[in-house]
Amino acid sequence: MKNARLPIQRLARLAATWPLLAAAAIFCISTAQPAMAADVPPNPLDKPGWILDRNDEFNGSLDSSLWITNYFESRTPEWRSRARYGFRDNALVLRIDNDQPTYYSDNPMKVSSIQTGQRTDLHKNDRYDHSIPTIMKYTPQYGYFEIRAKSGVRNGLHTAFWTAGRQDNWSQRGEIDIMEHAGVHGPSRFNYSLHKWSDPNLPEVNNQVSVGFDMTTEWHIYALEWTPTQIKMYVDNVLKSTINASPAYGAVFLLGIYENAGWTGTLDPNDPRPKEFIVDYFRSYRKADTPIVSGATYKIRNVATGRYLDSDSNGRVIVTGASSYDDQDWVVTQQPSGSWTIRNARTGRYYLDTDGTNNAVIWNTGEVIADSLWTLESASGGFRLNNDNPNRAYMYATSAGELKWNTGSTDSSTVWAFERK
């Protein structure tokens, strides 16, 4: 989060191997206070102009297909990275408890956080404890992202709804602090910022948003609209701030509460715990006019060469002139993770898949794994297809008609137009 912040790490999970703590996480939460007149009610699930992509209403459990409950685990022992959390009145309660371990052994920060993806050295690489698997459960690029929340912080604490670039390469590290509320700023003001880190295409922007209400006692709605050119911050459906820049890659989303992060003032040792960040829901939307329809069939044309994606024998995929054969028909389907599969319509030929030999893109025999999952990134004239394998990036066509994957180049050979059948 902020540059001045001491190292903090990933979301924590209440694992099945820790059943007593899991029970305590749910049962030690105090009774909810009644709603106040100033509380803003939840938005309807339907949003005009948008299509609901993913959501978690936090009705007594976490969606395990969406959330990881360890905070940047590779930077600290796993048991230190686990979130303390429970549920109250169909809302998620992230907590800082008296007996909670510090995130590191050598500084006082504590954190309870959940996130939608993980990998070793995600976000920062200033500390390393152990390697972890790359798991990107949900890392959308562009859309409308909304929570309804109450931030119970005082000095020495902060809560945050924020993103970290998914970091398929080292430049994909831009951070959006959608709502970062620190007790040191008072109950009615929060940070809305864009941090470039190692992204050469982003500016460093630090804003504060004043809201005119007490964020610690009232429920309110905080949202990000993310487009290819802007990021916009909304409070209770009202636009509050616009930044004219945008990360050009998918992002991990995080919800967290932090104590003694190093920039939030002095913690009162007599201030009773648990400290809480209460979130009613998380919702993610995509534009209703998105041109790619999940489950539809397309011909896919390379913008640079004008040639079409075509399945050949023995797993080979090429680009060639247009034809009416089903070799050039592809069924494009969005998976629960947000990534897409691209399956050839011809019987016996399956998903576009990256191969380790000669950087080839092939069709496989039916496996849906990282190698055969793709993120669709908007580009001038079409989309770039970014492979979910963390060591592989964009699909491109060569002038000789070969189909390849690269490690990050974004020239015109990586742009594909989808022509619906």
Describe what this molecule looks like in 3D.
- This protein is an all-beta fold and 421 residues long.
- The protein has two domains: 278 residues, Jelly Rolls, CATH 2.60.120; 125 residues, Trefoil (Trefoil (Acidic Fibroblast Growth Factor, subunit A)), CATH 2.80.10.
- It has one helix and 30 strands.
- The chain is elongated.
- It starts with 9 loop residues before the first strand and ends with a strand.
- The N terminus is likely disordered.
Write the layout of secondary structure elements.
Blueprint: E1 10-12, H1 19-27, E2 50-56, E3 70-71, E4 84-88, E5 91-96, E6 110-115, E7 117-118, E8 135-136, E9 143-152, E10 157-165, E11 175-182, E12 189-195, E13 205-210, E14 220-226, E15 231-235, E16 238-243, E17 251-259, E18 275-287, E19 296-302, E20 308-311, E21 317-320, E22 330-334, E23 340-344, E24 352-354, E25 361-363, E26 374-379, E27 382-387, E28 395-397, E29 403-405, E30 415-420
Antiparallel strand pairs: 1-3, 2-18, 4-5, 5-18, 6-17, 7-8, 9-14, 9-18, 10-11, 10-17, 11-12, 12-13, 14-15, 15-16, 19-22, 19-30, 20-21, 22-23, 24-25, 26-27, 27-30, 28-29
State mean pLDDT (0 to 100 scale).
Answer: 88
Helix content: under 10%
**Oligomeric form:** single chain
User: Would you report the number of β strands?
Assistant: 30
Quickly count the helices: 1
Assign an overall shape. Answer: elongated
Assign the CATH class of the largest domain: Mainly Beta
- Low-pLDDT regions: 2-35
**What is the name of the CATH architecture of the largest domain?**
Sandwich
Largest sheet: 8 strands, antiparallel
